[in-house]
Amino acid sequence: MTSSDWLLLVFLVLAAGALIGAAAMVVLRIRVSPQEQERRRRKHINGIGRPHDGLITDFADGLIHYVYEIHGVSYTASQDVTALAEPVPYEASRIVGPATLKYLVRNPANSIVICENWSGLRIRDPGPEADLCQGESNHEKTV
């Protein structure tokens, strides 16, 4: 082989290596963690979702369970809120009950009750016993 053949061979090997390296970087950048996918889903639903009334049936271990009905179809869903930057600091007795949710019109089963920038939770005051101690009225608040 002549020196120009060796130069061409070295150039082709380096070019192939650079191309493989660039492709690997693209593939690794595109791969998104499940937590980031969920954060993006919440953001998307918050941005274009339609608000609707629902009912929170349970809140335990960072999962909010809720039900709602759209056009005669009942949906049962749950949302993991442990990944939110600010965790839900309330006990189940203050969260269970009516709530506002957001859902996608094209896929009503895709819904949320809380995200980083919005909350449909209607936090209830602890009850009459706490009202007597603190002098507050018993009413719902939307967080």
List keywords for this structure.
143 residues, two-stranded antiparallel ribbon, 33% strand, 5-stranded antiparallel beta sheet, 38% helix, alpha+beta, elongated, 2 domains
Q: Strand-residue fraction?
A: 25-35%
Number of helices: 4
Outline the low-pLDDT stretches.
131-138
Number of domain units: 2
Could you characterize the architecture of this molecule?
- With 143 residues, the chain is α+β, with helices and mostly antiparallel strands.
- It has two domains: 1-31; 35-142, no CATH class.
- The chain is 38% helix and 33% strand.
- It contains four helices and seven strands.
- The strands form two sheets. A five-stranded antiparallel sheet has the order 3-2-1-4-5. A two-stranded antiparallel sheet has the order 6-7.
- Strand 4 (97-104) and strand 5 form a beta hairpin.
- The longest helix is centred in the N-terminal third of the chain and has 28 residues, at 3-30.
- 15% of the residues are buried.
